[in-house]
Amino acid sequence: MDAYTEGIVLRQTKTLNGRRMITLFSKEFGKLGAGTNLAGRGRDKSSLALRPFTYGSYGLRKSRGAWHMNGAEALRGFYRIAEEPEKFANCSYALEFTEKLLPEESPAPALFDLALEYFEMMEARRKKFDTLTAAFLFKAIHLWGAAPELGKCVRCGKEPRGGVRFGVRDGGLVCDDCRETENIPDADKDRLLYPLDFGILNVMRYLPGRPLKSFERLALDEPVLRALKRILREHAAWHLGVGGLKSEEFFNGGLTISRKELHGDGHGNHS
Ligand SMILES: [Zn+2]
To answer: What's the rounded Cα separation, in Å, for the pair 155 and 137?
Structure first.
């Protein structure tokens, strides 16, 4: 079978005899690994098309159950992603997250479009990279049917009136009444409960329904972002098995840089 498909390169690894294995998020077939003899180095067209992050058009053949890539042309290289360490860290995390989320050979066109839009916006973005990454993660979690419950308490079903926590294992809000009845020392730690203020809760309710485009100019406050990143990371690890990513540390490390940026951009409120 011969096919052409659009795709985003997730990974490139060397195999025997100068061959390479390309892990591709193809629009048509989902995630797949394809062996190729195309040159992965140098400056020719196909080598550019085999680099991670590249969005391109790929010629594939499947024989005896294995994919082979016999053609590759880059449509967009997203080279500017690598220009800044923090931007690169964010994109690496999003790429690895996507790779881990996707099952083998199961088409996911909505996630494909979301990822492509994310990289396009990221390439043009000049700061607050992790706001966009948080929005991307949240939307991906929604697309995967693992949206957290943010309207009512997951334990008693009531709309919380007092304090509220986010229960990672519970998959949503846990009201203070329910939390207190447990009466277990260290219950928060054991059950992965995180306090939520209304700022964070409002952001969490706002994020998933909006198109990614609406985040073009949005920059979340640092404490909100920090809490949100941790919740999303642990929620995805617990409910989708997407955890322990190699790029996780870099993604978190990005916080220091953005904080500096926050205080250095000249329009703070400290008058
Ligand atoms: Zn409750």
So the answer is: 25
